[in-house]
Write a structure and sequence with these properties.
mainly alpha, about 80% helix, globular
């Protein structure tokens, strides 16, 4: 029950953060649209935001928590906490200062295409301020790991929502008077608020560290585990830099279009793959029937990812218009961002299956193959994106197509090295064929409706109903799960 409780609290906090994050992005689109300001800001914020993903959502938590938990059981956690906090903070401060000092060269490296453009100096100016966010988010990541060890999950997960709330308020209240500086102010104020939000829980748990230069005996062990964890997670983040690097050579607005569309694409991707991958990892690690559970995971992901792909393809324009289409986000911006979102959606099924299949390797203790798969996918993304965007002259849509293509290569890499192949292929393909047919019927139904942007609010539930009814008619076993769940709830309600 404790695991379920923690999972639910983390999921709720994460969902709230995502919703508020889209409000923040909608405000950026409203006040600044697609312009030299947004291109400069998204380039300048790329590196510190990637560090947030790397430390806050990536390797540090995985490396720190097991060691700290062991020291808690031994009753010697205070020494490890104080020593780790001191050296972690010093390293964090050093990286932050290096980012501020070398901001211009970093921008030249990650987005060389903007060097000759009018907003290069603006991007460098913003980056010098935004690198300060690294210090706040680094400490936030540390306190997140500490609190998670004590079973506190909601506060660290909701801290990112606090960042989004404060940044959204700064944009809404200060954009008219401060212009683009409202974006910079929002990031810094949001980062500080995100850090402060952790402190009451840290204090109440008696986990507030005291700086010391004394090196703890487990510091080397932490570093030994941290480096490969960060490298593995960092490979996946290279995709963002490849997009930014190539987009910087395209016309004004390309960087912004990719950002706005990718933010929407990440919602179904994260919702579909992360929870299933983590659940499958736990099940396989416990030794339960691998063939049965892997087949079930593949079927379930396919049943959800295929209609999500179809929905994004036929409703991309309306979704972009609904979420961003106001203020300075113009009709031509909606058209381009909609095309980018539609092309991104082509990779949803394979990205989701890749995430699930990677958990099969992790369950066997094989971390090398998934990392190599991610590296292979990133390299292929760079190749495909360059060909589509510059050789075939598809522009920013070509970059999205390169990302979608890399989903196939990454999944194919894992599939090739999957020696056991403990998958019931016949059962899986029957489910996939039923899902394809139901998705086609769903898409045709939506196209016949010709919904307006606000019509998305009723057309999506209608599309879900059509898809589900088609699966029931085709007698797909997994389609009966909602009915079985409803019957169970009714039965428990009558017999508490």
């Amino acid at each position: 029950m404790g695991l379920l409780k923690h999972s639910i609290s983390f999921s709720i906090a994460t969902l709230l953060s995502r919703i508020i994050g889209y409000v923040r992005d909608a405000l950026i689109a409203y006040y600044f649209g697609v312009s030299h300001i947004t291109d400069a800001f998204f380039v300048a914020f790329r590196l510190p935001n990637t560090f947030r993903r790397l430390f806050g959502e990536g390797g540090f938590n995985a490396a720190f928590v097991p060691i700290f938990a062991k020291r808690v059981r031994e009753g010697t956690e205070r020494e490890f906490l104080n020593s780790t906090f001191t050296y972690y903070t010093l390293f964090n401060l050093l990286v932050t200062l290096a980012g501020i000092l070398f901001a211009e060269w970093i921008i030249r490296l990650i987005a060389p295409g903007i060097i000759s453009k009018s907003y290069f100096e603006l991007a460098v100016f913003m980056a010098r301020f935004l690198f300060s966010y690294l210090f706040f988010v680094g400490l936030s990541a540390f306190f997140m790991a500490v609190l998670n060890t004590r079973g506190v999950f909601f506060v660290p997960a909701f801290a990112q929502a606090v960042f989004n709330i404060v940044m959204a308020l700064c944009i809404a209240l200060a954009s008219h008077s401060l212009g683009y500086m409202a974006l910079v102010l929002g990031v810094l104020a949001g980062g500080f608020a995100q850090l402060i939000f952790h402190l009451p829980s840290v204090v109440s748990q008696k986990l507030l560290p005291q700086p010391t230069l004394k090196r703890d005996r487990d510091l080397n062990l932490l570093l030994k585990r941290l480096i490969p964890a960060l490298m593995g997670f960092g490979v996946a983040q290279l995709s963002f830099f490849i997009d930014t690097f190539l987009a910087s050579f395209l016309a004004l607005g390309a960087i912004s279009y990719l950002y706005y569309a990718n933010r929407i694409f990440q919602l179904p991707l994260g919702a579909l793959s992360v929870g299933m991958a983590n659940s499958l990892l736990s099940v396989l690690a416990s030794g339960q029937d691998p063939k049965k559970n892997i087949t079930l995971a593949f079927r379930f992901i396919t049943l959800l990812a295929l209609p999500a792909t179809g929905g994004l393809l036929v409703l991309s324009h309306q979704i972009i218009a609904l979420l961003y289409g106001r203020g300075k986000f113009l009709e031509e911006d909606i058209a381009v961002a909609g095309k980018v979102l539609a092309v991104y959606s082509l990779g949803l099924v394979f990205f989701s299956l890749q995430k699930v299949l990677a958990s099969v390797f992790f369950a066997k203790g094989d971390t090398k193959t998934p990392v190599l798969s991610s590296l292979f996918a990133v390299l292929s993304e760079g190749f495909f994106a360059f060909v589509f965007a510059f050789v075939l002259k598809l522009g920013v849509v070509g970059l999205a197509l390169g990302t979608a293509s890399s989903s196939i290569t990454g999944f194919g890499f894992l599939l090739y090295f999957w020696r056991e192949r403990n998958l019931d292929i016949r059962t899986y393909f029957l489910t996939a064929l039923k899902s394809i047919f139901a998705t086609l019927v769903m898409c045709i139904s939506v196209l016949l409706l010709k919904p307006s942007p606000y019509g998305v609010l009723y057309s999506i539930p209608l599309a879900v109903a059509v898809y589900w009814l088609c699966l029931l008619m085709l007698k797909e076993p997994l389609a009966y799960l909602p009915l079985n769940l409803l019957k169970s709830l009714v039965k428990n309600g009558r017999n508490p």
